[in-house]
Amino acid sequence: KLHSIDTTSVTLAGLAIMLLPGIGVMSWKEVEKRVQWGTLLMFGIGISLGSTLLDTQAASWMANYVVKGFGLDGLPSLAIFAILAAFLIIIHLGFASATALTAALLPILISLLSSLPPELGVNPVGMTILLAFSVSFGFILPINAPQNMVCMGTDTFTPRQFTRVGLYLTVIGYLLLLLFAATWWKILGLM
């Protein structure tokens, strides 16, 4: 560790220096035009939400509520994985970014998997890593990922066609996740 100043302060100081008159790296008008403020705010809010959920113990409270309420503490690890992966795929329909979804829900998933009884044999770290795959399944709606919106911008297909193909891809991907979870990932000790 070189110094006791946190990364955020160093980054903001560097940005302020770049914007000073006479330095000439960038003017504020250029920053206003070139920076995607919506994306920046979304990442900041998502990361803040995740940190707050962990710091206030809200993630643990929600995890205990979900485990007890849905009876996850009595299911085998593959069933828990299948339910949580399906939940993440469905909830992704309401998020325009996998990063925001991950930042918001990852702390809850970690707490949830850590609160499961040890006799179930669930590897919380391994299953969290594997569940992160299902977060990237933003294939169904054009608004589920920036790349989807770029594809829709080409006007080569309709939103209905996009959704139909996306549903097929999502189902195939989900089934492949379950297949790997039941076989290869179990052998590797991730499940």
TrEMBL record:
InterPro entries found in the cross-reference section: SLC13A/DASS
GO molecular-function terms, A-Z: organic anion transmembrane transporter activity
Intracellular or extracellular location(s): Membrane
This protein's GO CC annotations: plasma membrane
GO biological process, one term: carboxylic acid transmembrane transport
Topology with respect to the bilayer: Multi-pass membrane protein
Protein's name according to its UniProt entry: DASS family sodium-coupled anion symporter
Species: Escherichia coli
Lineage: Bacteria, Pseudomonadati, Pseudomonadota, Gammaproteobacteria, Enterobacterales
